[in-house]
Amino acid sequence: MSELNTFLGVLSGLRLLRTEIPLPTLVATMIVVNICDAVMCRLFAHNNGYPKNLWTAIGLVFGIWGMAALIVMPKREKRSEPA
């Protein structure tokens, strides 16, 4: 059980804040934080020209790490649509 707690703590980034968090608290906090991260990823993806649905899913699964990856990616230029 300790390995699962460590894995989820690192995946969510919550282990950086506190090393020992009870598993039920960690899972509940991770769900809430990852939903917020998914919304932020969707906004950043929309503003930077990346697929919104893809980055929403990445934010939901990877949380803060997905958002960090999206922030450091370069902004895409808008493509002009053919007439």
Outline the secondary-structure elements.
Layout: H1 2-12, H2 23-48, H3 52-62, H4 64-72
Would you summarize the structure shown here?
With 83 residues, the protein is mainly α.
Class derived from helix and strand content: mainly alpha
Task: Provide the number of structural domains.
Answer: 1
The fraction of residues assigned to DSSP E strands is: under 5%
What is the radius of gyration?
16 Å
Q: Based on DSSP secondary structure assignment, what is the total number of beta strands? A: 0
The number of helical segments is 4
CA-based shape = elongated
Helix content: 55-70%
Distance between the termini: 59 Å
Biggest sheet layout: none
* Sequence stretches where pLDDT stays below 50 over 5 or more residues: none
Q: Give me the strand/helix succession.
A: HHHH
Tell me, rounded to a whole number, the average pLDDT: 87
Description:
The chain has 4 helices and no strands. It has 83 residues and is mostly helical. The protein has one domain (2-72). α1 (2-12) runs parallel beside α2 (23-48). The model has no long low-confidence stretch (mean pLDDT 87).
